[in-house]
Structure formats: structure tokens, C-alpha cells
Automatic annotation (TrEMBL):
<dbReference type="InterPro" id="IPR036428">
    <property type="entry name" value="PCD_sf"/>
</dbReference>
<dbReference type="Pfam" id="PF01329">
    <property type="entry name" value="Pterin_4a"/>
</dbReference>
<dbReference type="GO" id="GO:0008124">
    <property type="term" value="F:4-alpha-hydroxytetrahydrobiopterin dehydratase activity"/>
</dbReference>
<protein>
    <recommendedName>
        <fullName>Putative pterin-4-alpha-carbinolamine dehydratase</fullName>
        <ecNumber>4.2.1.96</ecNumber>
    </recommendedName>
</protein>
<dbReference type="InterPro" id="IPR001533">
    <property type="entry name" value="Pterin_deHydtase"/>
</dbReference>
<comment type="similarity">
    <text>Belongs to the pterin-4-alpha-carbinolamine dehydratase family.</text>
</comment>
<dbReference type="GO" id="GO:0006729">
    <property type="term" value="P:tetrahydrobiopterin biosynthetic process"/>
</dbReference>
<keyword id="KW-0456">Lyase</keyword>
């Protein structure tokens, strides 16, 4: 599996394309909190994102508490951010937007 490693300036450019995502202090992951109207809606979001993650072969660190989903993305195999983190983040944002 190949991953496109991103330099810090590239990370900044990719992060600027996303809304609400934050870079960790150490620069190793991005994170976002998604809020939904219900548990079922949050779970539906997670299901859709899980299928997208499988297709990308790139899986999030996440947790769910009722109507909130907390997400952290990093590329564990490379121990830094890659193109896949930002691709999955964009897919998650699209899935979230469909539920507004």
C-alpha cells in the first residue's frame, strides 16, 4: 500500500480545504467532532463512513456517544499524515452534510 506523505506546508493547504478539522499540536493527526440530531443519525453516518474507509483501506480512530462522533485521522503505517487522511476527511464531511 502506498501513501503520499505530506510535508507540513501541504498539510496546511489540505487542512484549509476542510471545514472544522483541527491539526493536533504535534502535527500527527487531524480531528473533528460531528454532532447529529440523534443516535440513529450518528450511527448511520458512522456506517456510511466505515464503508468509505474500507474502500480507501484507511480507517479512522473514532468514538460515538449518543449523537456525537469524535474522529481522529492519521496514517498509522507511516506515523504521520498522508493524502488518505484528507481524502477520508472530505468523504466524512460529505456524509455529514447530507444529514443537515
Amino acid at each position: 500500500m502506498t501513501y503520499e506523505l505530506l510535508e507540513p506546508d501541504e498539510v496546511g493547504k489540505e487542512l484549509a480545504k476542510l471545514e472544522g478539522w483541527e491539526l493536533s499540536a504535534d502535527g500527527l493527526f487531524i480531528r473533528k467532532s460531528f454532532k447529529f440530531r440523534s443516535f440513529a443519525e450518528a450511527f448511520g453516518f458512522m456506517t456510511e463512513c466505515a464503508l468509505a474507509a474500507e474502500k480507501l483501506d484507511h480507517h479512522p480512530d473514532w468514538s460515538n456517544s449518543y449523537s456525537r462522533v469524535e474522529v481522529k485521522l492519521t496514517t498509522h503505517a507511516r506515523k504521520q499524515l498522508t493524502d488518505r487522511d484528507f481524502r477520508l476527511a472530505a468523504l466524512m464531511d460529505e456524509a455529514w452534510a447530507r444529514r443537515l
